[in-house]
Amino acid sequence: MISICILLISLSMTVCQYACAQTRQASVIISGQVTDFNGNAMAGASVFWQNESFDDVCSATCDENGYYKISVPCGRHYCISAINMQEYPKSKELKVSSPDDMRLEFWGWNFIADHDTTLNIRYHRMEAYGVNVFSIQGATPAYQIYVRPMSLTRTIEWTKNQTAEANLAPPADKLEVKVFIDGEEVDVLMKQAVKEYFCDTQTGTGFLISVNKPDVRPTRPYSTFRIVLADLENGDKGEAIYHYEHKDYMK
Length: 251
Prior knowledge:
This protein is mainly beta. 10% of the residues lie in helices and 47% in strands. The strands form three sheets. The chain has an eight-stranded mixed sheet. Strands 1, 4, 7 and 8 form a four-stranded mixed sheet that branches. Strand 13 (188-199) and strand 14 (202-212) form a beta hairpin.
């Protein structure tokens, strides 16, 4: 029993040391501004850190200028999101009457809170949902990004005549993709539409995006990917972030 306790304590200490190696704190301060893609402040928007059950770990509400500041527990968080429920189509708090004034939400995935930082967020009428990043072993040095674009304009149109194929994403030639790794834009090599299984009666479209891997060696155990999407047909935009952990990272 004692050895098991020692093992659990050791594992706990390892996770804590990894999560806040720079700060040696139990939490970090994250602050920033939430805006739309034109730089307009999203007053009253909420920013959430959530676990795998989408239960809130912590949350903050933006002031009238879109600024927020919050203490976030150190460690890896399943996702973060930003949303104003008064603009969200399915919300009971919805207060806008025109579909043109409705907004979706921002998502961040595999978020690692290990140091005080500024995180500015933008959201509009497209969700960049379900982001995952990986590299293919033994292949050309590149990253693969999976993302499900969900355009609000297309979703509203689809709900008028629902079909088994949920037409929420633009076709590849109408989807603009920009990818930034640690703040630097990288070349998009390829984007491929992928049929995604939603449930036993419905499918939708996701995209597999290949991007160049930067030559610069990372200075942290993870890199921050920012994926920016635009529907060239209707103007809906959105973005997401993902923290990609470097398995071969060495200080």
